[in-house]
């Protein structure tokens, strides 16, 4: 069963002369453990695709399935519960709550979902430990570096039993070394069985994915092929 | 790449044997540029002929040890600080293909751009896989991989910019732009002035 399946998804904003077709019949399937990058320029529809995949927005047409569950069949409350339990988001600007510590930011989605505080904090500690941030657990966002804040955002996205990780330009304004660390973490989460979708215009970020799909004017126009394996590249370099 | 200067650099640390230099060269270039031992010995012979290294003269082949001369050290120092020629744009085949594709009947240049973009991203995925599996302490390999990924990234950025420009002029198949020869000539003249 696919972790995420978009079938003929469309999204139209406005109406009449002001009508904007952000997505025009998008099909996309992401398997558990797979990391897919969606690459396209500004205005190509890639962020809309992500918000619809994460049920933050409803499509105008088509169907979205998360873990085999059709989102259109769920009530508003059921969709909110699915978002809290199953879907993790990483945003470009981190979106951490400034009044909460790193640990509280990470445990918040679980607490909102009714997980007892003690259990939620324990799960947050596990996520922070995985990202090498356990010694920063009690710090507030403004006491952390940009790289640390983004790692907290990734920890919040993978805490608990999430099986879909959605990221919009997850390295934000980080320098290339910190951006690479973020992508390594996203990659490792996927190796643990989480399905990941990263939208970006940055080819270096996209190249961490198993598959890169290219979006233009609300349509997926192309995707990368299965790899030959790195050996072939080294053989070329040797020639 | 200058094998000659790479060998001088290795010898500037201490006297070494040919085989040892081959191994060190490969390790320090992230094993991306293999070097055959024959090439090492031929280069060492030329360096010796030019007075930039001397051998101990007695042993043969693999047993022969080399050390750098003061002239060799000067040559190395000069080479390290001399910028490679970046002043004139290379004849980039990809750039030429896109330029030629604009306005050709029956060719959608956006499709051509996307075909190249996909291929370059696939290459970047392969290099990134090598990076992912590399040992965390292999600094040479990390630097070589970064260089290759940044180079390919710049190709993607150029393709993106080219596509953006073509869209702005509002055509998938625009007529050939007005002769750009004067500006190219001006650029060349400008470079010549700087060079003088």
Structure report:
With 239 residues, chain A is α/β, with parallel strands linked by helices. Chain A has 8 helices and 10 strands. In chain A, strands 6-7-8-3-9-10 form a 6-stranded mixed β-sheet, with helices on both faces. A 4-stranded antiparallel β-sheet of chain A has the order 2-1-4-5, with helices on one face. The longest helix of chain A is centred in the C-terminal third of the chain and has 16 residues, at 176-191. With 196 residues, chain B is mainly alpha-helical. Chain B has helices spanning 3-11, 18-28, 37-49, 70-81, 93-101, 109-133, 139-168, 181-195; strands at residues 16-17, 53-55, 65-68. A 3-stranded antiparallel β-sheet of chain B has the order 1-3-2. The model of chain B has no long low-confidence stretch (mean pLDDT 84). The A-B interface holds A 39, 41, 176, 180, 184, 187, 201-204, 206-209, 212, 214, 221-225, 227-230, 232-234, 237-238 and B 31-34, 114, 117-118, 120-133, 146, 149-150, 152-153, 156-157, 160, 163-164.
Topology overview:
The complex is a heterodimer of chains A (239) and B (196).
Chain A: E1 4-13, E2 20-30, E3 35-39, H1 46-53, E4 61-66, E5 69-70, H2 76-86, E6 87-90, H3 102-112, H4 117-130, H5 146-158, E7 164-168, H6 176-191, E8 195-200, H7 203-206, E9 211-216, E10 219-223, H8 230-238
Parallel strand pairs in A: 3-8, 3-9, 6-7, 7-8
Antiparallel strand pairs in A: 1-2, 1-4, 4-5, 9-10
Helix pairs in contact in A: 3-4, 3-5, 4-5, 5-6
Chain B: H1 3-11, E1 16-17, H2 18-28, H3 37-49, E2 53-55, E3 65-68, H4 70-81, H5 93-101, H6 109-133, H7 139-168, H8 181-195
Antiparallel strand pairs in B: 1-3, 2-3
Helix pairs in contact in B: 2-3, 5-6, 6-7
């Amino acid at each position: 069963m696919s972790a995420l399946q978009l079938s003929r998804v469309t999204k139209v904003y406005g109406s009449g002369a002001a009508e904007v077709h952000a997505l025009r019949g998008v099909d996309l399937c992401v398997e558990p453990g797979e990391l897919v990058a969606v690459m396209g320029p500004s205005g190509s529809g890639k962020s809309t695709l992500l918000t619809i995949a994460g049920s933050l927005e409803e499509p105008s047409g088509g169907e979205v399935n998360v873990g085999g569950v059709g989102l259109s069949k769920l009530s508003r409350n059921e969709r909110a519960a699915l978002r809290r339990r199953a879907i993790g988001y990483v945003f470009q600007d981190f979106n951490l709550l400034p009044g909460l510590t790193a640990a509280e930011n990470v445990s918040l989605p679980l607490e909102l979902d009714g997980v007892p505080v003690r259990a939620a904090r324990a799960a947050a500690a596990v996520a922070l430990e995985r990202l090498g941030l356990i010694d920063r657990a009690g710090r507030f966002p403004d006491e952390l570096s940009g790289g640390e804040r983004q790692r907290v955002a990734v920890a919040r996205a993978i805490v608990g039993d999430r099986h879909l990780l959605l990221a919009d330009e997850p390295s934000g304004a980080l320098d290339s070394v910190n951006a690479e660390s973020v992508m390594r973490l996203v990659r490792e989460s996927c190796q643990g069985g989480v399905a990941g979708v990263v939208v970006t215009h940055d080819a270096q970020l996209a190249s961490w994915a198993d598959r890169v799909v290219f979006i233009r004017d609300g349509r997926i126009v192309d995707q990368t092929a299965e790899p030959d394996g790195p050996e072939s590249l080294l053989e070329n370099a040797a020639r | 790449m200058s094998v000659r200067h790479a060998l001088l650099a290795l010898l500037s640390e201490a006297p070494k044997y040919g085989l040892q230099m081959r191994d060190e060269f490969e390790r320090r270039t992230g094993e991306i540029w293999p070097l055959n031992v024959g090439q090492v010995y031929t280069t060492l012979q030329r360096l010796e002929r030019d007075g930039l290294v001397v051998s101990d003269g007695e042993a043969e082949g693999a047993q022969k040890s080399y050390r750098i001369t003061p002239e060799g050290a000067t040559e190395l120092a000069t080479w390290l600080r001399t910028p490679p020629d970046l002043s004139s744009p290379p004849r980039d085949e990809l750039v030429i293909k896109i330029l030629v594709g604009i306005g050709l009947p029956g060719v959608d240049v956006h499709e051509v751009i996307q075909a190249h973009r996909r291929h370059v991203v696939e290459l970047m995925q392969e290099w990134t896989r090598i990076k992912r599996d590399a040992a965390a302490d292999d600094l040479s390999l990390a630097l070589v991989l970064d260089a290759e990924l940044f180079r390919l990234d710049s190709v993607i950025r150029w393709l993106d910019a080219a596509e953006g420009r073509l869209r702005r002029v509002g055509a998938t198949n625009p007529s050939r732009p007005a002769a750009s020869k004067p500006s190219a000539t001006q650029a060349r003249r400008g470079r010549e002035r700087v060079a003088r």
